[in-house]
Each structure stands twice: as C-alpha cells, then as structure tokens.
Design goal:
Shape: globular
Number of helices: 18
Distance between the termini: 39 Å
Largest sheet: 7 strands, antiparallel
Strand content: 15-25%
Radius of gyration: 24 Å
Helix content: 25-40%
Length: 543
Amino acid sequence: TGPESASRVVMGGTALPPRGDFATLTDEDVAFFREVLEGTRAGDDAGSRDTAKTSSSSSSFRKVRVDAGSLATANEDWMKKYRGRSTVLLLPSTTAEVSAVLKHCNERRLAVVPQGGNTGLVGGGVPVYDEVIVNVRSLNAVVSVDKSAGVVVAEAGVVLEDLESAVNAHGLTIPLDLGAKGKCQIGGNVSTNAGGLRLVRYGSLRGTVLGLEIVLADGRVLDLLKTLRKDNTGYDLKQLFIGAEGTLGIITKVALVAPPKPNAVGVLFAGCSSFKNAVAAMRLAKQILGGSLSAFEFLDRASLEVVLRELKGTSDPLPLHKSPFYVVCEVAETGGEEASAARKKARRRLETFAALLSRRGLVTASLVGKNEKQAFALWNLRERVSLALKHAGATYKYDLSLPTESMYDLVDALRARVARRVTEGDVEETNSEKKRFDFSSVSVMGYGHLGDGNLHLNVSSPTGYHPALLKLIEPFVYEFTAEARGSVSAEHGVGAMKPNELSYSKPENAIEIMRGVKAMLDPRGILNPYKVLPASTPPRARL
C-alpha cells in the first residue's frame, strides 16, 4: 500500500477519499508493460523507470511513458483544476493490449484511470493519486463506414472531429457536436454520455450508440459491437457502460448511427429582453421549424461579454441592441438540392422565423448569417464561451438539468448571493495571516442548451479559486437543483467533482444498485476509483 493511504486529497475544491488499498507501481510492472506494449524484455535499455526518465528524446515513440513531460500533461486536466501523481502513462494500440494491461493490473491490484482526449470538466479522466493511466488515443482507426445503413464503427481513440470528417466523405454526419471536438475522442464521449449542441435534432448518445466493445477490469473482452438498429434479446448491456465514466470497463470500439449529412446549415442570432421570451422563442422554433431545427442555445449578456473580451476576432453581432439574453438557433437542410440552393433555403427559413419572432415581441433584434463564414462566426459566440472562460481565469462550472421555464432562476439567485458579499468580503487564515477575498471580481453567468433544459452555470473568479467563494456556491447550487427535481449533472458526468453530490439526484436504493453493478464487474475496484460513486452516501432528504 502506498504512503498516502491515510491522507485525503483536495482537488478542485473537492475533498476526495483516502487512497485505496491498492498496490504501488514497481519497476517490474513497468517492465511487464514494456514487454506487452513495446516488445521490450526486462534487461533491455528501457526496462526501468529511472533509465526512461533520462531518455525523453525517444519518449514520443514509446507506448510506455515515464518521462516528466508526458506525465505532466497526462496527470492534469485541461482546466488545470485536477492533478494526480501517476508515474506511468500507457498507450496501448489494440484491444488485446488493453486486455493484457488490465489483466495484469487486476491481478496486482493496481488502480487504473482510463483516459481519452482529457477534455472533461469534472476530473474524471485524470488520476487522483498514483493510478496507472491507460490512454486510448493510439486506438485511432475508423474501422468501417456503411453508407447504406448509416452506421460507423470506430476505435475509441478517434478524435470526434476526425470521425466527422471520415463520415462526411460518405455523405454522413456524427450525431454529436461539442466545443472540444478537435481533441475529445469518441470513446470518452460515449463513456461520459456527452450531450453537446445538437441533442435537439439527434437525441442523446444512449439512443445513437448501436454497439460497443469493452475490456472489463479482469481483462476479459466483452464484444457487444453490433450494428443492428433493432436487437430485443434481453438486457441491453451496452447501456451500463455509456455514462459510466470508465468505472466499469474501458471502451475500445464504438458502433454509432451516422445520419445523412446536411447539405447546408443556417444560423440565427437574436436578442431577448427576458429569459421568458427566450423560452417562448424556443417553443416556437420547435413548432415552426420542426425537423429542420438542429440546435437552440441561449447565453446571457455576461457570457457574450466574456467571449468578446477574451477571444480575438469576435464582435457583437447586434451592437446597437444590447440585450440581457441571446438565443442562437440552427437549422439544417438535408434535401437533395445543391448546396447553394440549400443554403438559400435555410437562410429564407430563418429570416421568416425571425420576422415571426419580431412580430410576437419575443426578440429585440436579430441577425441571420448571410453565408457560411458569418453563420460560423455567430455560432462560435455560443460554442466558445467555455474557452473564453478558461482565458478569463479560474471558473467554477456547474452542468445542471432543470425545468426549462425556470432554470435561469438559479443564476439570478447565485448572482444575488455574490452581490450581498461584495461589500463584506471574507477572511481565510493562511499561515497565521488573514487574507481577504474580494467578491467584487466574481462574475456569475449562464448559458446552455435551451432546447433540452441544460444550464451551464459558471462562476468566473479572475483572482483564482478560493474556499470562501466555493462555500458560497456549494451546497447552495445542489440544494437548489434538488428542490427543483433536477440533475446535478446533465452531460459532463460525475467524475471526481460530484460523487458526494450524487444523492441530490439519485435515491439511496438507486446508488446501492449502482454499487452492486460496480462490485460485480470490478470486484477489486481498480477502474477509476474515487469517481462517480460516493465512498459513503451522505444522508440527505432527497426524492
């Protein structure tokens, strides 16, 4: 057992359980991994960790990484909020290699953290302590594309944007679009049940994943990789692994529905004087635009301003009509006409819809993208809010499902809590000195997927993370969500951030059933420990 077994780690403001009773990595383990992944036997030059640490020049060709540069990147999430202390990064390139690695780790009881593009927001893809990192980015082949059936099979490490390009060549598209599409991987998307921007049109990944190949904790390969649209033969086991965040197995292949690629898309950006009007505009879009509607997003003025301030090349599309809220509506045309005709059709459809919104008093002003470039720029104002916030400094991020009509009430309530503290400040004892936190620099903003009731609540703190600010936010945000019978995680997952908040959204007996599934599939608990399930469920009057 490692020396940290009795201590607790705090990551991203979250106190995590003490290190589990797992084995500690040895040079013999590293030698085994090298033999399995690189064909290097014990006694060869690269056999030990000390040797490899001094030969980083060749590390880019290795599938077993122990050099400081590789580990620094793999140990830390992209927000620099969560950071582990793993001493080895493994890059298997086949299912058989993943199987051999997990079989060994299970026998030795070495904890493992599965990792993909490392774009998560809840610390699910990085170690907490010294877990072995198994990154699947080298499993990056598009196995097949069936244009007639509209199905693609890909290995887990294929980057989402690359997968989109591959199916585009066959006239198809991937039913998932994320701001991190240039780095996130399809295996991680499925493992976290990523939602994204076009759920309104295509539904959730649970409905579009047709099959999976998974390596279980003991190294067994579970082949559920069917491409059938209909298979009513008992329990749909693949659903257990969608959204399980690598706690039940490592996904190595995915079979996914790939619908026809739209000939053209159109984007409408409009200002609204109230959140009520934004919701009414969304309802009208579903009624009027019907099957052509692919996304309906919203952002508040504070979110737009951080994009305009932090990201070069952006500009306010409605500079003469500043509004407290904005909606971004996207339509897609999938008919047989030429692309130019389809673009005109999409633009006319949105212009007609914008005129209707204006007549009903639901928008203060609007702009329809006149060409692909302008449509892309309008869409990016919403899609790149998360990136802008990263540039702005520390951000507390909350991904919540709430009743659509009232979901912005949480933003207003939290903003009011911050405002009350602006003149008060707070005091934290640090090395016998009193350090005051300035709440006046804090901004509370909301944006998200209005079409499916998903609020992204963000608290931006340019001066950094601070316990006083976290105390103001939590548990208030979770209690508010529970009282509204919402979900504390709409699409980001639970990860290391929210295991102890699971009972705000799940009853105790549901959590116990989840524990039972975990114990059955991973009895030694090696897969992504400290994530998703609470160490012990805090008693709360919920549900």
